[in-house]
Amino acid sequence: RSVYDDQPNAHQRFMEKLDACIRNHDREIEKMCNFHHQGFVDAITELLKVRADAEKLKVQVTDTNRRLQDAGKEVIAQTEEIIRCRVQQRNITTVVEKLQLCLPVLEMYSKLKEQMNVKRYYSALKTMEQLENLYLPRVSQYRFCQIMIENLPKLREEIKEISMSDLKDFLESIRKHSDRIGETAMKQAQQQKTFSTALQKQNNVNYGRNMHLGRSRILESKNEITLKRTFEEDDEHEEEVLTAQDLVDFSPVYRCLHIYSVLGDGEIFENYYRKQRRKQARLVLQPQSSMHETVEGYRRYFSQIVGFFVVEDHILHVTQGLVTRTYTDELWNMALSKIIAVLRTHSSYCSDPDLVLELKNLIVVFADTLQGYGFPVNRLFDLLFEIRDQYNETLLKKWSGLFRDIFEADNYSPIPVANEEEYKIVISKFPFQDPELDKQSFPKKLPMSQSVPQIYIQVKEFIYASLKFSESLHRSSTEIDDMLRKSTNLLLTRTLSSCLQNLIKKPHIGLTELVQIIINTTHLEQACKYLEDFISNITNISQVTVHTARLYGLSTFKDARHAAEGEIYTKLNQKIDEFIQIADYDWTMSESDGRASGYLMDLINFLRSTFQVFTHLPGKVAQTACMSACQHLSTSLMQMLLDSELKQISMGAIQQFNLDVIQCELFASSEPVPGFQGDTLQLAFIDLRQLLDLFMVWDWSTYLADYGQATSKYLRVNPSTALTLL
């Protein structure tokens, strides 16, 4: 440090001291070299001595190294082989470890392919799920795993498409088999109901005990046959009770539902299934245009509907969520409205009561079958009441034709019975009682004609036909009794009454026929109480019941009698007019023939024979007819006498006319119909008698003098009438 100080000569002194130090060190080095020089020389000398040995050693080492290298070549080769083997061993171990990871994946994928081939799609989806979640993540670094991962979604879509295709095939299959399913279900329901009904009738020993004897035997034998047949059918079908599963394979639905549920698309599947089934429901509910023509058309229609809802009910109970009770109820309500509209339309086309009855039976079986599956069917039974009214209308039309045929075939003469057996046959058909007739010996005649027992039998047959429809409607006996009485009332008051009125108006029905019709209606009227008893025995409802309706046959037959009576009066007058038309008076004759005109005698003979036929009529009817005929004859004769075209009459013609009137008065006084008091019938000709007496006696002074007095001899002679004749 001081070297760099600013002291004078400092640097030089430092250099001097440094040189002095160097000289000291050189002297020390020289001393040391001198000290070790001999040793160095000795060492070099020894080293030179060793040089030869070193050369020798080098040669030996080289030789040894050469020999060692030659010997080591084989070791190196063996070592390299060992290294290569150990590398292979390590690789094999690694490969085994990796294969142990990959083999389960490949086995599962192979299993997946096999499941796809044998169409076990649900198991295939489960296998895919295991592959994705458990196996593939372990070996995801390999390319084949990536290929598998890419293929799995495609396989899922393939499974969805295949299962959907199977579902479509299933939907098509149940559409084809729904009528068979429905037919089987309805047949089983009907067999069960028939068996129960037959067993109930067999046990009910009092059923129909008071019914008509012949009909009871028929029904009893029918019940036995039905029960026997039911037992036989039950034995036959006991071993083969078919269900929907026996007729249709439901596995495609289950598979598809499970598959879509596993894939997380369960809601899509449910919506698709319900949509397709709704479409099928609309197709099933669409009837054929000619369905109303045969009962088979209705049966096929009902079978398809029952089959459809049996399948839905089965799906409801064996799957969860695919079909719900709310969905089936909604579908049924829609279907029920459509069914009712279809039946209401098509049943209106039916004109055959047998077809309507078979339709009713089908509807009852249809309703009972679906009710057994839990569907509400009250509206169907309400519809049956509408169809029942239509059934009654078709029955009324049919029975109208039967009544017309009976009336046309009747000979309108009393029924002859030659012996007791014939009498019992008639009595078995018609409730006739007449103690006076019973006392008479055979052969004898019943007052009514052949149409009366036939009409009575047909009315009973109508009641049976009406009862057939009322059965199985789940109604009380009182309601059935009321229905039968109302329909019978319609038959009597409308159909039979109309047939009677038309019969009475027919031109070929003569007075004899009209008289017999009046007698027939009287006996039919009396038989109405037996019809009421008949209905009560069928329904087991007493007539004393407050709500029991009564038959209106009395008014029907009374109206028919009144119409027949009026027609008798009309036809009598027409016959009188026919005789009057053939009258041929010579109004200018100088004197009379001394006897009554031929036409008038024929007319009186006709009236006399006609009134003899009236002996079976009620007295009032015969008297009214006789009085009406006499009055009409009197009026017709008066009109003939006062005819405006008649310009001149001689006194001889007046005398001839007087002879004819005398014959009329004699006829009236002979009491052609019993029951007239005094000369009541003769009063019908009093106007003619007084007018003719006035002109025959020419008693004008008395007529003019007593005119207007109650005691006048010519009180009934009108001045204008007398003036016209004068």
UniProtKB/TrEMBL annotation:
Belongs to the SEC15 family. Residues 17-186 form the Exocyst complex component EXOC6/Sec15 N-terminal domain. Signal peptide: none annotated. Residues 380-726 form the Exocyst complex subunit EXOC6/Sec15 C-terminal domain. GO terms for cellular component: exocyst; plasma membrane. PANTHER family: EXOCYST COMPLEX COMPONENT 6, SEC15. It comes from Aptenodytes patagonicus (King penguin). Coiled coil: none annotated. Keywords: Exocytosis, Transport. One of its GO terms (biological process) is Golgi to plasma membrane transport. This is Exocyst complex component 6.
